Amino acid sequence: MLQRAKELAARFDDAVELHIDRVRGHRTVDRVMYGASELGDWSLIWHLIGSGQALLPGRSPASAVRLSAFLGVESVVVNMGVKRLFRRRRPVWQGVDPRPHRLRTPRTSSFPSGHASSAFTAAGILAARGDPLWPLYYGVAAVVATSRVYVRIHHPTDVVAGALLGAGMAAVANKVWAS
Length: 179
Known about the structure:
- By secondary structure, the chain is mostly helical.
- It has one domain: Vanadium-containing Chloroperoxidase, domain 1, CATH 1.20.144.10.
- It is built from seven helices and no strands.
- The chain has helices spanning 2-21, 27-40, 44-54, 62-85, 114-127, 134-150, 156-178.
- The chain is globular and about 50 Å long.
- The mean pLDDT is 92.
C-alpha cells in the first residue's frame, strides 16, 4: 500500500511538473515566482501583511503579534518536527543555465513544504473573523506555495502536504485565539 501511494505521488509530481515546465523560463513569471519564493522565506510576507492589517482602523496591533507568534509555532512544528520525520530529497535543478534569479536553498527535508505550510497557516489566520480580503490572502498563499514547485525547491506533493498542514494549523490557531 505504501508503494502504491509513492507511485501515485510520483505520477502526480510528474504531471504537475510537466505543466509548470510550459511556463518556466518566462521572464515575467520567473520574476513573480522567484520573488514570491523569497518573500516566503521566514514568513516575511505574512509578517508584513499582518503588520499592515494591524494598522488599519479598528484593528489591534496585538493581532500582528499573535500572527507572528503562531507562525513561529508553525515553523518549529514543521521545520524542527515534521520535516525530521521525512528525508525526502529536494528536486534537482535541471536547467542548462543556473537559476535565473538568486535563491536560498534550504538544507532540510523537502517534505512537507514549510513555505506552503506557513502560507496557509497565515492565510487562515488572516482570513478569520470575516475579513473581506480573505480571497487575497489565499491567493497570495497559493502563489507563494506554487512558487516553490516553480523554482524547483519542492515537489508538488510537498506543497500539497504543506498547504493541508498549514490549513489545519490555522484552524487550531483560530480556536486557540478565540478562547
